[in-house]
Amino acid sequence: MPPVFAHGALRLYLLAVLEEGPRHGYEIIRALSDRFGGTYSPSAGTVYPRLSKLQEEGLLETILDGRRTVYSLTVAGREELDRRRHELTEVQENITASVRRLADDIRLEVKENMRGLRAELAASAESARAQARTSHKEPSHEAAGNAALLKEAEFALQRFRDDLRVELRLNAARTGFDDVSLATLRTVLDQAATAIRQTLRQ
């Protein structure tokens, strides 16, 4: 996949982000992620070296806010941004194209994962049916057996929900949660529910 930012574009875009006001490093990363709709989030190893370079060049200045370093534009930084203002339009157009490309990649990955999930569900259902055909339960035990299997299925669904709920909250605490993540989650769950219904009706 082509790089999200062309050579030198991230450096310029960091100046544009900080034109909106001082921010500490995590806020800068979140601002970049928000502008990509959550489809791309630059790593700290990508952002902080460039911030340090901009500071060395006198385009940024820093102050300490507790244990955090807050970055802001210097007069020279604003002048640099003003001189290159015309380049920001091209950078923004490239970002828009990158967002669309990344969103397409995510949709493709979700579709591929759902195909694999449907295949696994179908295989599991066929295995269960085969076991049921080869078992020789007495008719009097059939109702009790069905109740036990239903209980086990309900337990599996509850465990699936609980596990994903924990993972969802941990991920939200680490990287945040946005509209794109919510839409992706809804799409995956809808497709999973459809695949399960189709399997149960066979």
UniProtKB/TrEMBL annotation:
Residues 14-82 form the Transcription regulator PadR N-terminal domain. InterPro entries: Tscrpt_reg_PadR_N, WH-like_DNA-bd_sf, WH_DNA-bd_sf. It comes from Arthrobacter psychrolactophilus. This is PadR family transcriptional regulator.
